[in-house]
Amino acid sequence: MIDKVPGKAWVVVFCGTAINLCLGILYAWSVWTGKLINVEKAGQLIAEGPGMGWTYLTNAQAATPFSLCVLIFALFMIPGGKIQDKLGPKVGAITGGLFLAVGCIIAGLMKSYGGLIFGFGILGGIGMGIGYAAPTPAALSWFGPHKRGLVAGLVVGGYGGAALYISPLAAYLIATGGVSYSFIFLGIFFAAVVIIAGSQLAKAPPGYVAPAAVVKAGAAPAKAAGTLVDWAPSEIIKTWQFFALMFMFIGTTQSGLLVIANAAGLLATTAKAIPFFAANAWILASYGGLVNALGRVGTGMYSDKIGRGNAYAINCIISALCLFVMPSIIGAKSIFFLFVAVGIAFWQYGGGLALMPAFTADFFGPKNLGMNYGLVFIGWGLGFFMTRLAGTIKDITGSLDYAFYMSAVVLILAVVLSWVTKRPMHVASGE
Question: What is the pLDDT confidence band of residue 409, given thresholds at 50, 70 and 90?
């Protein structure tokens, strides 16, 4: 069979990426908090500057809308997946995108901490959960197992790469029109994009058979292989492989977010003697955002060739080694090796977000992928535990050393689990 999908399939991939480029505003949150945080003046009205009309926030207050958004995002992936499976990706993507857009506009108009909680935290989280659940399953329905990694990486790469343009765009909008203006502008912009791109999303029609891989004479076939059975959500939660995938998701997430949450601080600590880096610690975070996006596409590509489990193991083992030596890198104040180690952590985290939907489709089929992946995605939400635990460890010990060691151990346990986790057999069909 010729390995050729309809042109519509790539339109869905492109539009899904565009939608995620809007939903990924989460990774640019620090652009706004940097203008609103002032612990000494917390609660006081900002009389001048880009934050005029707002009130100053504490660090804890600034972190709350972000944390709430993440939690609601993870929870709403499940109903978002159900909407995608039952009503179609158009409904899910446009509904989710408009929730986020309205949330941004409300946050901008209210000019308050409560507005950030309701607009960005609650409405934004609902929008991300419903919206993120739609593009990837729709795109994957058009492709066979041999291209699922690449396609998943391209679509979710939009979410990871969003900070690359939203951060500088938001900074420009804040500088020219203020904090409120930036939220309102982006809200309107997101609404326009998700309506246009979301209207082009579509699952493969009933009876469609995705093209198989073309294997040249003498060449080994791709190792990515999937089930021929479409499992129902009620069936997958009865398998131990479902819980294995969830733990594997926790593993990739907890280690990546530990580094993501502390990237700027790590550079500031390591580069104290270099004024430029000490003053521009955001550089490491921006660099990480780029690698995060590339890791989603790159990992997806080679997972199609060498198998999901092998790709997962390679990413996680190398990342675990970097976590083990991170305290030494910081102690030696090596900027070069810090960028290498942080880059690997970001690549591994991004790679996990490409691997897990592909794993889910391989194990349980593409038909109910929205809901099935929404259930597996709970592991992403639970992966935030390490970031919070690391804060406590730093308060007690004065450093993140033990957090790095613990995170590396969790990664290794996840790799061991991945080695024994094989595609489940569907009892009724024998597949």
Answer: very high
